[in-house]
């Protein structure tokens, strides 16, 4: 079975919040560094905010909409990629997409790759600066964990590399969100090694096929498996093939999907030993090259590699997403309380995606980068709801459904704070003031959920590099020195 499209909020998918927000006064598509520098200085002189767009995938549209007068710097033309096979490094400009990066790597080597996201149309700028995780995170960590240099233009228009910006700012942009600190134009990344053959599988199980017990068991094993394998779960409503006449024709399905950095002969015994209940058989598995596995996981199995160069894949819809971290397994009774919500009208095109941590993620300090969600997290949940009808009625139906599910999950997820992942942006958890000064206390409401104790250090870096808070949005890191608060 081939999985469907996971998620793609580009021009064809709109965060629901963008429907009510204003559009930019002007969109700048710079061709040279000097164009960006001039835009930063000019915008400050005229009292305008800027928003920087890499791939346009911010879950709340913060890279291209605002309720105050603003300018968009669209880095679509900053997409050069240079691969150095000998040093196993690459320079990639911020406007490149993940798909373009993956494709460029694959053209140079079958045994090199990069650990980043699943969706190929996502821009590297936002993904890298917010953390960036995919199905190799248990082996190699986040995208941000593999960044070794960067070029940024700061509030004064200076063009800085790692040495010139200093280690504090370099720390901040690897997981703290680049939009708070300047315009990042390029990243130097450390490529990772992959075998010539990797193995993928997709095993669908409905509630009638014991999905609840399988998800329950998965919680105990997925984060403890060999770090070369990541099994994530996509939970959604599907049409039931076993329903009797007169009964509901829908059920809930859990799609167990995996990437293993090795051959099928090693994978089968590994899964059969640790997770025999899944019933994995050789027929469920496919041996592919790494680049072919990227297409498979995204739902494009067998499609030409060049599709990764497309900026738009899929049909247009509107969506809302949220996230949670799970530190102790949810009971079967707790899981069973979720399923009735998937039959409600607001859940028609919704899903929960469960991605296990462990492995390399357990071995990186919580303070190594601003991304703090390391040891102690079994898995992250991404909640998504999609809809296709514009208007307040459809929006209310689906947003209320999402918030109801999120409320139900509260007892089962992380507490004090209830953590969230920056790249699954969620303005429900707190926002800055639209204009004027935002206090540390107010920003902490959302800041500690994304960054935990790292939030304080982020504010110190922000205060040093952008004291007047020029680079700001609804969830940007606040400066501790701002107008009205000296």
TrEMBL record:
Coiled coil: none annotated. Its cofactor is FAD. Residues 20-194 form the FAD-binding PCMH-type domain. The keyword Flavoprotein applies. Pfam families: BBE, FAD_binding_4. GO terms for molecular function: FAD binding; oxidoreductase activity. Gene3D superfamilies: 3.30.465.10, 3.40.462.20, Uridine Diphospho-n-acetylenolpyruvylglucosamine Reductase, domain 2. The keyword Heme does not apply. Keywords: FAD, Flavoprotein, Glycoprotein, Signal. Belongs to the oxygen-dependent FAD-linked oxidoreductase family. This is Reticuline oxidase-like protein. The lineage of its organism: Eukaryota, Viridiplantae, Streptophyta, Embryophyta, Tracheophyta.
């Amino acid at each position: 079975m081939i999985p469907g499209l996971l998620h793609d909020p580009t021009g064809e998918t709109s965060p629901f919040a963008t429907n009510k927000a204003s559009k930019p006064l002007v969109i700048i598509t710079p061709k040279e560094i000097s164009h960006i520098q001039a835009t930063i200085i000019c915008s400050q002189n005229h009292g305008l905010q800027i928003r920087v767009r890499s791939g346009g995938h911010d879950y709340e549209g913060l890279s291209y909409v605002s309720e105050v007068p603003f300018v968009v710097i669209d880095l679509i033309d900053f997409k050069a990629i240079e691969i150095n096979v000998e040093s196993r490094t690459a320079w990639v400009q911020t406007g490149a997409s993940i798909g373009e990066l993956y494709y460029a790597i694959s053209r140079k080597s079958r045994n090199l790759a990069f650990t980043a996201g699943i969706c190929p149309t996502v821009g590297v700028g936002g993904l890298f600066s917010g953390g960036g995780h995919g199905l190799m995170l248990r082996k190699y960590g986040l995208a941000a964990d593999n960044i070794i240099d960067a070029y940024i233009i700061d509030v004064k228009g200076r063009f800085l590399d790692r040495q010139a910006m200093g280690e504090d700012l370099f720390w901040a942009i690897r997981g703290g969100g680049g939009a708070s600190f300047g315009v990042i134009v390029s990243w130097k990344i450390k490529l990772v090694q992959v075998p010539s053959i990797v193995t993928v599988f997709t095993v669908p199980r409905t509630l009638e096929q014991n999905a609840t017990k399988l998800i329950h068991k998965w919680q105990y094993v997925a984060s403890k498996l060999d770090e070369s394998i990541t099994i994530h779960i996509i939970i959604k409503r599907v049409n039931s093939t076993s329903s009797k006449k007169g009964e509901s024709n829908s059920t809930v399905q859990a799609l167990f999907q995996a990437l293993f950095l090795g051959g099928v002969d090693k994978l089968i015994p590994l899964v059969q030993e640790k997770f025999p209940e899944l019933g994995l058989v050789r027929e469920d598995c496919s041996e592919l090259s790494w680049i072919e596995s990227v297409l498979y996981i995204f739902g494009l199995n067998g499609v030409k590699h060049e599709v990764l160069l497309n900026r738009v894949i899929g049909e247009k819809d509107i969506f809302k997403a949220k996230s949670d971290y799970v530190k102790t397994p949810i009971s079967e009774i707790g899981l069973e309380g979720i399923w009735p919500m998937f039959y409600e009208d607001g859940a028609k095109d919704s899903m929960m995606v469960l991605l296990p941590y462990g492995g390399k993620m357990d071995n990186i300090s919580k303070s190594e980068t601003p991304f703090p969600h390391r040891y102690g997290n079994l898995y992250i949940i991404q909640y998504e709801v999609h809809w296709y009808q514009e208007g307040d009625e459809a929006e209310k139906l689906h947003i209320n459904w999402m918030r109801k599910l999120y409320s139900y999950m509260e007892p089962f997820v992380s507490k004090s704070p209830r953590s969230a992942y920056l790249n699954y942006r969620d303005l429900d958890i707190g926002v800055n003031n639209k204009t004027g000064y935002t206090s540390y206390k107010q920003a902490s409401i959302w800041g500690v959920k994304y960054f935990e104790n790292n939030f304080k250090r982020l504010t110190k870096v922000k205060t040093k590099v952008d004291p007047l808070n020029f680079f700001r949005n609804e969830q940007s890191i606040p400066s501790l020195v701002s107008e009205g608060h000296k």
